Amino acid sequence: MSGYKKFTRRDFLKVAGLTAAGGTLAACAPKAQPTEAPAVEAPAVEAPAVEAPAVEAPAVSKPIEIVHWSWLTASDGEVWAKMIENFNEAHKDKGMSIRMEVVPSEQYGTKVLGAVATGQAPDFGWGTGGQMAQWVKDGAIVPIDDYAKKVDLDLTDFTENSLKASRYPNLGGESVFMVPMDAMSLQPEMNTDHVAEAGLDINNPPKTGEELIEWAKAMTKYDGDKVVRSGIMMTGSALQPCVTWGIVSAQMGFRRASEDLKTACVNPDAGKEAMQWVLDLFDKHKVSTRDVTDRYKAFGTGEGSIFWTGPWTLGGYQEAGLPFISFLFPTIGKEQRTYFELGGLEMYTQKDAGRYEATAYAMKWLSDNSFLWTTVGRGAACRKSILAREDYKTAGLPWEIRGAFIEGMDFAYEGEIPVLAAPNFTIYAGSNFLAQTLDGVWVGEKSIDQAMDELTAQWQADLDQG
Amino acid sequence: MTSLWQKKTSSPMLVGQGWLARLRRATWNDQRIEWSGYFFVAPFLIPFLLFTVVAVIFGAFVGFTEWGIIGTPKWVGLANFRQAFGDPRVAKVFLNTLRYGLVIVPGVTILGFTFALYVNQRWPLSGLVRTAFYSPNVVSATVIGLVWVWMLDTQFGLINQYLGRLGIPNIPWLTSTQWSLIGVSIASIWWDLGFAFVLFLAALQDVPGELKEAAQIDGANRFQVFWYVIVPIVRPVVSLVITLQLIATMRIFSQVYVMTNGGPALSSSSVIHYIFNTGIVNYRLGYAAAMSLLLFFAILAVTLIQQRIVRERV
After folding, report:
1. Among candidate residues A112, A99, A77, the one with its CA nearest the CA of residue A347
2. Interchain CB contact of B264 with A (< 8 Å)
């Protein structure tokens, strides 16, 4: 008789049950420690020495790991990673560290809100001043005033513009909902090789709308009737023409909302004139083409001569060896104005309120040590003490490419409209309500009057909502 | 030793044993239930119920609410649907999706069948053709989109370079409202071709050789053999490819997102892309869910009509 033992159904069920139990136990085991992020090389600019923290880290009974989400992935992301590394280095014996996780920018909002809803939110993350009213209303963001006092973060050291952009008067009164980190503006960058080729004076860049068009015409190249090198880098739709209209319309006197946030589209004729100005770049002056798909790459490879963008491009273009300078946005309308954006750190609602103080301390440390961030990483400092430093202008990226973004903060007024529907008003956007409405004008599907009527109707409804 | 299945005086263990015995003896329609079968399908069934069925039901519910992820959804009844029917952008993206269907489905079907025929006939380089036309299918849609953005660049793209040699001026494939949908469709056809090609090739290889020989002996020429013998046999596969491709095309997203982000001016945006922007980018989950429901019914209607047409012709 064979020694083979029949494997019965009962035997199978026993084995399966044991396997399932073992799998369940394994799933309940403590998570493995996350692997460290790959070391990021600091950009090839000497970083100023990190200052010792002026305030002691809050006493922690056990090591605390503060979770931080960031969407920064370009050259600014490398500098930000260095900032986090500096914090961890400075606090390695103090039981405190920051674990940074990079989340794609288009998923950031949904993931943060989902995490807040489930009580799994990161401790702090990046935000844009003026755009977070809905999150404030929903209780996703914690006001920092009380915690700033606890960790000795001096709010009077911040510039007034940056604090204003961190408040939502309709919701939180005077409460501050963000630690401002850097202020950005849009300024033109110009390819110096193209300037030399056109015989123009690089030391005397255009200051008015007329001069701007003259320079653009001198640097534009054509193949027959088609523009093959843009004098002014533009795309046929989406973000670039939208933000251009936003800036030019503001210079011409248009206001998306009145100061008291009650009336939409103040001085609509100026807004219409600005739409025509953008169209003229393509159709009348022929210094731009609608055929550009990637404006960053196009400027970086010399397909355009003048490109207004933000300071987040400086590191990347410099690394790529592009010969360029930045200059102050010309006065195309009645007054010199440009786009303003505030980047800052916001604290998200936690189940354990005991984490807030440690998080506030981390944000304070990063703000106190933001000299690296605001000289090499991205925009202008929001701390008066940093702006007043003697080496602020000489450290970091060369002043001829960085200077306009610092000095231009003096007229960077076109920021966010701090209402619940703020994203509808944002001029630096490619697919929001504003951009989609204007796209119809740029492609000839909608008249200028029609577009202005649509903007007025929707924005008024948004302002009425609060 | 007393059998475990004999009824005993009550004790927790013995009560449990009685319960287990009843479970083992349970029947349905006079047939004993084999619990082990359910145990086998549980690893698939439980996640499917949780992450598909429950998610779909919840999504349908959200379509009747206003919700921004945080807080409880606020019931608004049919308001989202009324808004969708009155929103010209919704009409535009549905029309775009229909246009995608009219371009991509015939493109994939005809080209896939043509190349399958070529390989089946073992014409020159059929081995290379087999690999060349299937390989795009194994690459992700995002990579395809990124490659084709460069291929279709107005000034420096390969496609315009070759067209230029034929004397055709540069076409603004991705930056013009007239051409953006075509540009995205080209990339989609190139990507989807492989799967249809494989299905058609398998169907063609299943056509009995004797039938073709018999037709040839009866005097049929090559076209007649193709039209009266091969096509009727592969018709079910054609129907399958058309159905699958229709459903896939109505859900087109990755190529749109990567290549044009729906622009210029929503000219290349699809329904799913618009839903993504509405729900994920603008946090209007209720409105996005309502549009998803409308898309579901649209796909269902199109599929039923298509199935009806094909069935009537078989």
Report:
1. A112
2. yes
In whole angstroms, give the CA distance from residue A449 to residue B24: 76
Report how far residue A399's alpha carbon sits from residue A436's, in angstroms, rounded to the nearest whole number. Answer: 36
| Predicted confidence (pLDDT) per residue in B217-234, tens digit | 999 888 898 889 888 999
State how far the alpha carbon of A262 is from the alpha carbons of A129, A294, B20, in Å.
Answer: 20, 37, 70
Tens digits of residue pLDDT in A266-314: 999 999 999 999 999 999 999 999 999 889 999 999 999 999 999 989 9
Q: Which residues of A touch B264 (CB under 8 A)?
A: 236-238, 290, 439, 442-443
If we measure between CA atoms, which residue out of B175, B167, B177 comes closest to residue B149? Answer: B175
ipTM above 0.90, yes or no: no
What residue ranges of chain A are covered by domains with CATH 3.40.190.10?
64-183+342-399, 187-336+405-465
DSSP alpha helix (H) spans, A91-226 = 105-117, 133-137, 145-150, 160-165, 169-172, 192-197, 209-219
| Domains defined along chain B, listed by start | 12-77 (no CATH), 82-313 (1.10.3720.10)
What kind of architecture, by CATH, is found in domain A187-336+405-465?
Answer: 3-Layer(aba) Sandwich (3.40)
Q: Does B6 touch chain A (CB under 8 A)?
A: no
CATH code, A64-183+342-399: 3.40.190.10
pTM of the entire predicted model: 0.81
